[in-house]
Structure of MOSC domain-containing protein:
Amino acid sequence: MKHTVTAICTGTARPFNGAETSAIAKRPREGVVQILEEGFAPDEQADRRVHGGPEMAVHLYPLDHHAYWREQLGDLELLDQPGAFGSNLAVEGISEHDVHIGDRFRFGDALLEISQPRQPCWKIEHRFGAETDSKGMVARIIKTGRCGWYFRVLEIGNAQAGDVLERLETGHEKWSVARTFSALVAGKASREELEELASLGRLAPKLRTKATEKLG
């Protein structure tokens, strides 16, 4: 599996909702960008309690999903931006059904590994709410599984727009990002599935813990 990354996007924390700040507005970068243990340098996350860190170092939200959101929200200029959903990597032709927890990818000379699906929060609705009635976006993400995912960085390196994101190794092939999201975020897991997820070695520790807690 090889896909060209058409843009690398990063952002800084800016006023977002009253006293709140957010770095969800990611803009394309020019030239070579460093990829460190916690992601691109520089790239900020406003609320480090729930965003950023080694298990959420690099975010990819498939560009192909933008067409779905145009059908839902209208032809918004915001949807022309590759980082509209806070994504660091703009990639076409790939979705949550195509990749798995633990898949390893070479990007530039960095090595990335899928760690978890992205769990949507209210900031997505607020970001789009200035231009349209975005109420219900989070619910639609959960229902449709259009969530995107995070990578951890196994080997730091450099990359730039136009480089290829190439899968070198398939991780837990029974656990696509789509299935993992459905089980742990949409809440559709059987007890057997939760037991598997609780011991899934390449799944982010917080989600393994979540699976354990759901088992009771």
Summary: The longest helix spans residues 205-215. Residues 72 and 159 are 34 Å apart (CA to CA). The domain at 2-172 is CATH 2.40.33.20 (M1 Pyruvate Kinase; Domain 3).
